Amino acid sequence: MQPNYTIRRPTQAELSMLPAIEVAAAQLFLPTQHAFIATWPPATLDDLQAYFAWDGVWVAVDADAMPVGFALARIVDGEVYLSELDVHPDHGQRGVGRELIKAVAIWGKQQGYRHMSLLTFNDIAWNGLFYARLGFRALTAAECGPELTAIAQSHIAVGLPATARVAMLAELDQLVDLH
């Protein structure tokens, strides 16, 4: 990550800035087969507040201390679950997403967890392949716990194509050592 970014916990006031980052990041889906995602509403302030209360929000801020990316995580099936990762496209391709994942992994390890899971698209290079390069591996349906399975089913219920989704898992030790 370039030195003009910092990963930290957000302030309460910064939560209201995160939906705009999510909307901007969603525009990256426009040229893909999942363009409809660009029109979905972002996380609500209530949703973000819940993650904040769980201690599950991290922000990347630029040199002016303005949020440019964020990660949301919680505990699912007894392990860290990366619910969302968004980086404003103006700050993409600079290692910000990788550093957000590393921050979540450090927190998870400090809490005594061993793995991080997530759900993503397997047919977009900056989704599944990005996570695979960081050390995540695809899970079979049998390897998914009941809570992760329920989240995956809820994604399908709101219109995400089941055939394009993949559950992935990585060891926190590996993610903590990302460069």
From TrEMBL:
<keyword id="KW-0808">Transferase</keyword>
<dbReference type="Pfam" id="PF00583">
    <property type="entry name" value="Acetyltransf_1"/>
</dbReference>
<keyword id="KW-0012">Acyltransferase</keyword>
<feature type="domain" description="N-acetyltransferase">
    <location>
        <begin position="5"/>
        <end position="163"/>
    </location>
</feature>
<dbReference type="InterPro" id="IPR000182">
    <property type="entry name" value="GNAT_dom"/>
</dbReference>
<protein>
    <recommendedName>
        <fullName>N-acetyltransferase domain-containing protein</fullName>
    </recommendedName>
</protein>
<dbReference type="InterPro" id="IPR016181">
    <property type="entry name" value="Acyl_CoA_acyltransferase"/>
</dbReference>
